[in-house]
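Note on ligand handling. Small-molecule inputs were canonicalized before submission; formal charges were left as drawn, and no protonation-state enumeration was performed. Where a ligand contained multiple stereocentres, the stereochemistry in the source SMILES was retained. For adenosine-5'-triphosphate, this procedure yielded the string shown in the input block below.
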Amino acid sequence: MTPRDDTIFKDSVTRDQPGLRTSLKTWLLRHAQVFFYSLGQLWRAPMSLLMIAAVIGIALALPTGLHVLLKNAQQLSGGLDGAAKISVFLTTNASEAQAHHLQSQIQQMPEVSTIQFISREQALIEFKQQSGFGEALTTLQDNPLPHVLVISPQRTVSEPASLDQFAQRLRALPQVDLVQLDRQWVKRLFAIMAIIARGIDVLGGMLALGVILVVGNTIRLAIQNRREEIVVIKLIGGTDAFIRRPFLYTGFWYGLFGGLIALLLIGGAMSLLAGPVQQLAGLYQTPFQLHTLDLITVGQLMGISIGLGLAGSWLAVGRHLRAIEPR
Amino acid sequence: MIQFIDACKRYPSGFDALQNVSLEMQEGEFAFLTGHSGAGKSTLLKLIALLERTSRGQVIVNGQNTAKVSRRRIPYYRRNIGFIFQDHQLLFDRTVYDNVALPLIIAGLAHREIGRRVRAALDKVGLLSKEKNYPITLSGGEQQRVGIARAVVNKPPLILADEPTGNLDPELSFEVMSIFEQFRQVGVTVLIASHDWELIRRLGHRVLTLKNGKLIADSRSTA
Ligand SMILES: Nc1ncnc2c1ncn2[C@@H]1O[C@H](COP(=O)(O)OP(=O)(O)OP(=O)(O)O)[C@@H](O)[C@H]1O
Ligand SMILES: [Mg+2]
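Structure output:
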């Protein structure tokens, strides 16, 4: 038997007022306690924690994975756009010397990677061979074709806008008749990717909503299971915040573990893709590196996942706790 | 400490459980609330603890008009009242210790202080040896005493008890009552709903009698 302690009677009426610092300390301590208490509760039923986390993980891995793939595709197409050729057609009266002069002039421009001169004679020969009009064309008196300069721009000017600017400057040069950018298809590709990006956003939004509902429903069931406990806590003076806290932390943990599972799934998928992509890159002889998750994306994913977990539990708690009142 | 001024309670069903009840209890007073089943004893206690809202009239507790306590403030208000429930309201998945500690955890006391006070309260009701038990392994009387320990553990100035001796034998009932008397001795106001006439007479405290929602007798004013 412990020594008898009469403190319970001595100052029954006077209530003690803790200092500000101690209350802050106990407040933090209480949060930490509930934080780990809720984790402990979840840990006791690892299967159901795993299930919820897996649902969240899959729902988030899908849009995030697609997002990463799209980033890779964008990078790849950026390279393709850089490889787009610009054909500069000179006026028909431009001499070959003038053309060569123009070639060396354009060569100086920083946007230019390589430049190739195709003389009008050469062009005619090629055209005769390729078009199949060979016989008919020999009857022509004059060569109707102009000299052509074919430019490969630097990779750095892959943006459609900067390419347009570059073409504009070429058009302003003397003896230049027509500048043709061979990149209609790249524009289309960019447009398609913009649509895909939007589609991924929509998909992600819907899945996020799904995550909120799943977490909300799970927390709702947890609230119902602990109905009696909530009633008792309300009876003896527990605030809504006190009752809410463990449920919110539960949502936090769901989000955290869901985010980790999403990372695992994406990481796994990426490592499966890495091999074939390297092979493909080898075939094209491009120094393409498959981009996996960067730190910012990881941070965003975890933030969103935890945010969704909290949002779901907040929703459930807000809707269902108020309905439970002592009778 | 407690003042009822023409207080009425009409339940949503339209039933008038209390009609024009006026009474006053001083700080440190000890009173029994009695009456037939359905007379409105529990209802009266619930109005004090703000488990129900007064329909008409006023209920003033510790200088505070209960009608003016906002929903948000109710938890803090209740912490000043130790309520012993007719049906214990214990948490059966927690030990006796954890049950009694709950009000202190809610109030945010430091860990060491909680341990000290919980043991003091359990000692008071004679259950110190059972702190690690689960309520389900206790007898009805022991469960009732756990409820008492929980009600007094944060030293409320007012204790309300709804039939605290409902399922106890006479001897145990008397023991429980003597615990309440000890609280009164340190200035706590105690109001106990009971229809255990034998016991009430034996203890000789003030008796408030309800009948069909009306206060029909008050031993102090008639004495
Ligand atoms: N929530 C409610 N809704 C409607 N009527 C109620 C409600 N609670 C109690 N009553 C009615 O109010 C009356 C008084 O109830 P109360 O619980 O106060 O009685 P009591 O004196 O405590 O009775 P007992 O001794 O049986 O516990 C009863 O007739 C009961 O049916
Ligand atoms: Mg009753």
